[in-house]
Structure formats: C-alpha cells, structure tokens
Amino acid sequence: MKATPPAIALQAVTKRYQNRPVVDNLSLTIAPGETLVLLGTSGCGKTTTLQLMNRLIDADAGTVLINGVDVQQQLPHDLRRHIGYVIQDAGLFPHYSVAQNIAVVPRLLQWDTARITQRTHELLTLLRLPDTILDRLPDALSGGQRQRVGLARALAADPPIILMDEPFGALDPITRDDIRRELKELEVFRQKTVVLVTHDVREAFILGDRIVLMDAGRIVQTGTPDLFRQQPATPFVSRFLKASGEG
Ligand SMILES: Nc1ncnc2c1ncn2[C@@H]1O[C@H](COP(=O)(O)OP(=O)(O)OP(=O)(O)O)[C@@H](O)[C@H]1O
C-alpha cells in the first residue's frame, strides 16, 4: 500500500522580494488533519509562507506539494477551490450579500441552487449564525459575525485544507476568545488540515497541534505547545514566549 503523502510539504522553499529572502530555504511538512500554527513577529515571513501554499505567490526556489503534487502542476484557481482561505476581517466581498459570499466557491463548482441553499443553512447552524443575516451586506454585520461568515465561505465546498491568516486579528479579545474556543470544538475543524498564521502565542498554544516559530524567513523551532513550554530551543524562543506571558 502506498503511504499517504503529507497534506502540504514545502521543500527548501525560498521567496525573495527586492533580492532579500523573506522565506529562506524553508522546509516543512504538514500531516493530513493536523492544525499547524505559523508563529512569529511581524515581517518574519508567515503570510508569505502561507500564500506559497495556495499559489497566491510562487516560490523563487524549492518545491511546494499539496497531497504529494507539485503546486506548479496545478492551476491556481483549481488549487484555491480545494483550499479554503480565511484572512483578517474575513476578506468578504463588500458588494455581495452574506448568502452570495458563502456561495462563491459552490457557484464556481456549478452546484445547483437547492444544494447551495442547503449547504448555506448547514453552515449557518454550524457557525451559530442567524439566517436573518443572509441578505445583508458584510458592512451590516458585527466583526464576530463577519469572521464567522468568512469561515463559512472557506468551509462551503468542504475543502480538506484551510489556510487562515490572522483570522481573529480584527476582533475584540472576548469575541476572539469565544470564536477560538468554538472553532477548536468543531469536529469539522479537527478533521481538516489547518495552517493558521498568528503572532499571538496564546492563540498558537490553544489551537495548534504543532507550532512553527519563524524568524527572518527561517524556522527557529518546531514542536507541540508542550515542547515549546518545556524545551525552548534558543534564547530567542524563550524571549518570544516570555514577552507574551507564556514562557
Ligand atoms: N509584495 C511584496 N513586496 C515587497 N516586500 C514584501 C511583499 N510582501 C511582503 N513583503 C515583505 O516580506 C517580509 C515578510 O512579510 P510577511 O507578510 O510574510 O510577514 P508576516 O510574518 O506575515 O508579517 P505580519 O505578521 O506583519 O503580517 C516583510 O518584510 C514584508 O515587508
């Protein structure tokens, strides 16, 4: 029997801007079903690393594989239909209603209206959203509701991989804590391969099966939250954890 390939693999990947590597010879594998958190200070290359995974940007060197297939052999739009993407403040289309936002990928996949309606209602229930918001524009939602709609949109076609870039960054601390907790408890979230970018150590410890701490485009330490607590690999790691009150 053939072994299952990693859901995502980066092999010696480099991305340069103005001749400066912002992702520097980085290698990383993510198992199916794993929640991996990319953690690090502002500008260390987390977002760039994430965007290499769904071909929002292309690497200058190295290989990115999704389920064992080089992303260069896949069309960006095909790839993105199979990889959900959630960004800060949800990134909803402002002139689309909530219903239209949630239906973006199902429409691309040419689902019929009945199937889209059924899926939309399932997602509203899953994410504890009232169906009274379906006709509203994103502007007429609270930040927490917008973020939930962003999640619903990313989950709509049930992609096996979800990429999340500072998904809770725009929320107040209480709403952020609530949504984090709810997300962690969702069965669907547990089953999926999730890569989450954050600079928030607490968030990384709550949500991550494994954490990758980056600095200047490189990996400083990889491991479970417990490993980070018990064996910070370098003084940089200790300082990073201490600065957030988790060290
Ligand atoms: N399109 C671009 N052109 C030039 N430089 C860029 C571009 N995108 C990112 N950079 C630079 O690459 C570096 C890494 O950026 P990246 O967004 O990946 O960092 P990050 O760790 O996600 O930071 P943050 O937490 O602030 O979002 C930064 O110095 C940034 O200024």
Automatic annotation (TrEMBL):
<dbReference type="InterPro" id="IPR003593">
    <property type="entry name" value="AAA+_ATPase"/>
</dbReference>
<dbReference type="Pfam" id="PF00005">
    <property type="entry name" value="ABC_tran"/>
</dbReference>
<protein>
    <submittedName>
        <fullName>ABC transporter ATP-binding protein</fullName>
    </submittedName>
</protein>
<dbReference type="InterPro" id="IPR027417">
    <property type="entry name" value="P-loop_NTPase"/>
</dbReference>
<feature type="domain" description="ABC transporter">
    <location>
        <begin position="8"/>
        <end position="241"/>
    </location>
</feature>
<dbReference type="GO" id="GO:0015697">
    <property type="term" value="P:quaternary ammonium group transport"/>
</dbReference>
<keyword id="KW-0547">Nucleotide-binding</keyword>
<keyword id="KW-0067">ATP-binding</keyword>
<dbReference type="GO" id="GO:0005524">
    <property type="term" value="F:ATP binding"/>
</dbReference>
<dbReference type="InterPro" id="IPR003439">
    <property type="entry name" value="ABC_transporter-like_ATP-bd"/>
</dbReference>
<comment type="similarity">
    <text>Belongs to the ABC transporter superfamily.</text>
</comment>
<keyword id="KW-0813">Transport</keyword>
<dbReference type="GO" id="GO:0016887">
    <property type="term" value="F:ATP hydrolysis activity"/>
</dbReference>
<dbReference type="InterPro" id="IPR017871">
    <property type="entry name" value="ABC_transporter-like_CS"/>
</dbReference>
